[in-house]
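Subject: complex prediction, re-run

Hi both,

The earlier run crashed halfway through, so I resubmitted it with identical inputs.
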Amino acid sequence: MRRDGRHGRFAATGICGLAALLALGLAIAGPLRAAPLVADLSKHLVAITTGFAGTDVLLFGAIDEPGDVVVIVWGPPQEVVMHRKSNIAGIWVNTAAMTFDRVPSFYSVASSRTLDEVASDVVLSRLEIGVERLNLPLPPAKASPNIARNWRDALIRNKQRLGHYGKEVGQVIFLGESLFRTLVEFPANVPTGTYQIEVYLLRDGRVVSAQTTPLIVGKIGVEAEVFDFAHNYSALYGLIAILVALVAGWLAHVAFRRH
Amino acid sequence: MQIYLPIAEISLDAFLLLGLGGLIGFLSGLFGVGGGFLMTPALIFIGVPPPVAVGTEANQIVASSVSGVLAHWQRGNVDFKMGSVLLIGGLLGSTFGVWLFAVLRSVGQIDLVISLSYVTFLGIIGSLMFVESLRAMRRRRTAGTSRAKLHKHTWVHGLPFKMRFRRSKLYISALLPLGVGFLVGILAAIMGVGGGFIMVPAMIYLLGMPTSVVVGTSLFQIIFVTANVTFLQAYANQTVDVVLALLLLAGAVIGAQLGAKASVLLRGEQLRILLAIMVLAVCAKLGYDLTITPVDIYSLGLNE
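This time it finished cleanly. Structure:
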């Protein structure tokens, strides 16, 4: 529920960015402190272009009084099918499958202190802070709690191996008492879609303020056009692919006949 | 130099892909095989999703086969009549194969079937070829000038619908090349190969074609079968990455030309024993991978 239907906000991010910069300036300058928490990103669009090999996005902000800052990056939710192998007559075969309806395609956490210092387990669980506290329900009819736990852990393990879930909690670094920043790292195989970045300000283990900022990860330029074309005009795409191959093969032949 | 592949949705080094294409293109030109049975596992190994590897490889084989077949055509080494009959079987088989691929993918068994198909077919073909070419080499050494019989008469020659294939100097039932074409077509779609490594031995040992026309004819029909697979995979599964295919084929078409020239330097049985060793090596590697305990018995499926 928290992560849904916030696309409208994207239009307002330009203003938000401006406000964040303004607030930063004010925080440095002096006593006028309107909001308890202001944060923004160095960019709101991660463009996947030809040379894309992963990227970092800087998240920065300011708080009015000392406290802890926790940042969560949520990738767009997706349905995930998992398989389990068994050894049959010496070879490993997929023998069981399980479908998770709603899994964040990307997830990472950064915090100013270790998570258990920031808040109690109850609070962390409610906000789904930390991979082990992710809410990944399975249909109860399909799996007993014990088996569901195995599937869940396996899902997280596989996502971490893929680089889509953070293995460790990242660092939120404070510059003085009010300014903070953290680097959000995206690998080359980052899933595309609309991300939500949640920033929490906690004091004495309680959430004082929260802010959500959207981030778009998308293919841009030729890559996007090829992808769209392949999906929207797949028959034509197939024919062009064959034509390109025929011409390339013929060109190579002609080039080599000369020598 | 990293390059982002739009359909595979990963970044890979462009020079790695060019080099891989060149190396496998050379082998494909040398042996008259598409090289898919090496390229598809190699692509999966460097991180390309298996369905994209299979679809893209079909596209790349179209290009390397065109450049290969033109070289053989000029030397008159293509039996177009035989190629056309093989092709009819191939088109039917590959269409059925693409459908089978989609079904297996949806039940989560495609990886296993791909691996098992590789182990089975590479194992059988590799062993047969190895033994035969070893025998041929020994015969050459001991018998000197004495020649083997052109072909033996078996049950195969009793089949109906006989056709004359002038270029291959054969008078056999059309059902035979039709069946071979169909079987290889299925494998082309499922394994992401042109099927040359099965087609070439089948033409020599099953159909009894002269070695000189085998490679050219095999390449000729592979063009159309892989074009069919490319189209169907692009249309049904959107798994053909043109950027990846272009990089691979840039290397492969050049490699194939060099390979075709180098093939003149070796005798038929020498070529066959080298191919047999390579086929058996790939088979052993894939077979071994099936039996070792996986890093994680749980794995992510395809999110469709």
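Chain B has a mean pLDDT of 83.

- K.
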